[in-house]
Specification:
Blueprint: E1 7-10, E2 16-17, E3 33-36, H1 75-81, E4 90-95, H2 101-114, E5 119-123, H3 128-138, E6 146-149, H4 153-161, E7 168-172, H5 189-206, E8 209-215, H6 227-231, E9 234-239, E10 246-254, E11 262-268, E12 271-274, H7 278-283, E13 293-300, E14 303-315, E15 324-327, H8 331-345, E16 352-358, H9 370-382, E17 390-392, E18 395-396, E19 402-403, H10 408-417, E20 422-426, E21 437-441, H11 444-453
Parallel strand pairs: 4-8, 4-9, 5-6, 5-7, 7-8, 15-16, 17-20, 20-21
Antiparallel strand pairs: 1-2, 1-3, 9-10, 10-11, 11-12, 13-14, 14-16, 18-19
Helix pairs in contact: 9-11
The protein binds thymidine-5'-diphosphate and magnesium ion.
């Protein structure tokens, strides 16, 4: 019999190559090809069009039972999930090491157990003693849940298959799990995929809600095969800067809810505390007005979050190439804004270093931040603080116009609640709300005129 051919699978995009290469031919990522078990070969004359069972078709409007969701007991977690855990669904929770995944899941597991749910918590990373110690610190050691330290998928499924299936199964982490159905060390693409497949099948068959913890690579993707993200119903990402206190739980994919809702937490001495009013958290520490600081009402799903954008401009004396550094925003977008300000308003940044920071380590993806960034840059360049009671929002086009953005009144109402009195936005994209005066800005030139004229 011929030796089975080796195959190599890209951990980023899942494409298959017949020999190892340093760079994936499809997605151009480096060092992502890993060896995998050989492809299954079928007999030459296989025919799939007979021998199967007939499948039953249904109509779209047939009655369906509504989703019975189970609350995690943590409102911010429920919100990010789109209303709670769905039985029989599989959730992948990604995040950097030390960000708080195990903490969040242990808190949720304990609160579900306290509410009468049957919870199994399997840790492949920590000994039961360590988990117990964390539970003690979180003040949930009295929760009645089944805790185990195990890495064999067969052991886990054999044990669970012999009793009543739990309501929630937490597996921390999928990279430590091992399936004896195939070869390879835990954490390899084929192991992660096979282990996840078996665990997800158990969840679907029994109605258990499965939460898999997934490690992320240094560029923020969930380690292991991309297919993992396709196999689960929901992909969540737990984000934040470790040096900062707060954490954001985001859903990147959700078969049972919207993907743009976020949950906000603060990591404290006794675990994760819910932050139901995030704006106060991100704006804290703003006392004296300083040049280069602008407040932007970002929108996360249906939730407005006020964040501070800080710009710093350092004029260079020598002819060295100036640096541009961005934390929390897209560097390509910053380059574009600088180009618009140079081309449309004649401002010069070419001999200056530009630093942009979204305070608190918050990561902005909302395009409506353009105007606030532009205001911060101009204010830093002119060394003139912006009005302390003002917020800025709007998208900038390459021609320098300020474009309307979605949900301006929601953004303004949040700002008014927090004591802001003025909003600057697109000329035809907003109006006064209670306690907040709105002023439209047509384009970057009028923005520059306004900022340089007033203080
Ligand atoms: P952990 O949940 O272990 O992170 P992950 O599972 O994502 O790797 O959280 C680890 C960090 O959280 C650790 O550095 C200590 C910190 N922490 C607190 O600040 N307070 C707490 O109550 C707990 C349990 C952890
Ligand atoms: Mg952990």
């Amino acid at each position: 019999m011929a030796k089975p051919k080796k195959r190599y699978v890209c951990t980023e995009c899942g494409s298959v190559a017949s020999r190892w290469q340093g760079q994936c031919a499809d997605c151009s990522e480096w060092n992502t090809l890993v060896e995998e078990a050989p492809e299954t070969k079928f007999a030459a004359a296989h025919n799939l069009s007979s021998g199967g069972r007939a499948i039953r078709f249904e109509s779209l409007d047939a009655p369906t039972a509504p989703l019975a969701r189970r609350s995690t007991g943590i409102a911010e977690f429920d919100r990010a999930l789109g209303g709670g855990l769905v039985p029989g669904s599989a959730i992948l929770m990604g995040g950097e090491p030390g960000i708080g995944k195990s903490t969040l899941l242990l808190q949720a597991a304990a609160s579900i157990a306290k509410a009468g749910g049957d919870v199994v918590y399997v840790s492949g990373e920590e000994a039961t003693g360590q988990v117990r110690m964390r539970a003690g610190r979180l003040g949930v050691a009295d929760a009645n849940l089944r805790l185990a330290s195990a890495t064999s998928v067969r052991d886990i499924l054999t044990t669970l298959g012999n009793g009543t299936p739990p309501d929630l199964l937490v597996v921390d982490s999928i990279q430590t799990m091992h399936s004896d159905m195939i070869e390879g060390a835990p954490g390899t693409v084929s192991q992660v995929r096979a282990s996840a497949f078996e665990l997800i099948r158990f969840a679907k068959e029994t109605g258990t809600c499965l939460v898999l913890v997934g490690h992320v690579t240094k560029d923020g993707n969930i380690a292991g095969p991309r297919v993992l993200e396709h196999m689960v119903d929901t992909v969540m990402s737990f984000e934040g800067e470790r040096s900062h206190q707060y954490r954001i739980l985001r859903s990147l994919k959700n078969r049972f809810g919207a993907v743009d809702e976020i949950g906000v937490f603060a990591m404290e001495g006794h675990g994760l505390a819910e932050v139901s009013n995030p704006s106060t958290l991100f704006l804290s520490g703003r006392d004296e007005p300083i040049a280069g600081s602008a407040v932007f009402p970002a929108l996360e799903g249906t939730r407005p979050v006020l964040v501070e954008i800080q710009a710093l401009i350092v004029r260079l004396q020598s002819g060295a190439t100036p640096r541009r550094a961005v934390v929390g925003w897209d560097s390509g977008r910053l380059a574009m804004l600088l180009a618009v300000l140079e081309a449309r308003c004649g401002l010069s940044f070419s001999t200056a270093e530009v630093y942009l920071n979204v305070a608190g380590g918050y990561r902005l993806s909302d395009p409506a931040a353009d105007l606030a960034v532009a205001a911060a840059l101009i204010s830093a360049l002119a060394d003139k603080p912006l009005a302390k009671d003002a917020i800025w929002f709007g998208e900038l086009s390459l021609s320098g116009e300020v474009r309307p953005v979605a949900h301006s009144s929601l953004r303004q109402r949040e700002a008014a609640k927090l004591g802001f009195a003025r909003a600057f936005g697109p000329a035809d994209g907003g109006q006064d709300v209670k306690g907040l005066r709105y002023a439209g800005i047509g384009g970057v030139t009028s923005l520059v005129d306004r900022l340089l004229a007033s203080t």
